[in-house]
Amino acid sequence: MVTHVPSEAPGDERGALLAFVEAQRGAVRRSVLGLTEEQAASRPSVSELSLSGLVKHVAETELNWLRMAQQLPNERQRDAETWADSFRLVGDETVPQVVEFWSKVAAETEAFIHGVDSMNDTFPLPEAPWYPKDERCSMRWLLVHLVEEIARHAGHADIIRESLDGRTALQLVAEEAGYPSQS
After folding, report:
1. What CA–CA distances, in Å, run from 181 to 28, 32, 113?
2. Three-class SS of residue 178?
3. How far apart are CA 31 and CA 12, in angstroms?
4. Distance between CA 66 and CA 70 in Å, rounded?
5. How far apart are CA 162 and CA 58, in angstroms?
6. How far apart are CA 56 and CA 94, in angstroms?
7. What per-residue confidence (pLDDT) applies to 1?
8. In this predicted model, what pLDDT tens digit does every residue of 74-94 receive, in sequence order?
9. pTM given for the model
10. What region does 47 belong to: left with phi over 0, alpha with psi -120 to 50, or beta?
């Protein structure tokens, strides 16, 4: 998604990385702009992914990485039995509720990063087949990983949204900014 990410003040690594994370968050949030709950939950391809599910998943994923970096328990920890629920709204969950939850997680992530002593501070990666045993990563790595993770799903969201109503990511950027629709 091509949007302008403001340049950081010289030497403001935290600000620059957080700005790129926020740019990717915005791409995913915009994917549900103007949709009904039903449209956001629809799956226009053979994929199990929906836009509302992607918003929930990236919100929970950011929370999970934040809790790992804080070395705190994740109050929304998923297991094999509940993993699929991280990709769909369940019960009385709505898109606005999930977006609001994500906004709170984003604010907590940003406050946490601004509060760490150094971007070189580390935390342990979880035990998983795809991570080296006893590996640690830095706060810098965390933010780059969040850009990667959210951007991957922003691409999924672009395709799903365009499949739903033909609206492209650039059209949604313009709409969000108040420009007339170019559909």
Report:
1. 19, 16, 37
2. coil
3. 29
4. 6
5. 19
6. 10
7. 46
8. 999 999 999 999 999 999 999
9. 0.93
10. beta
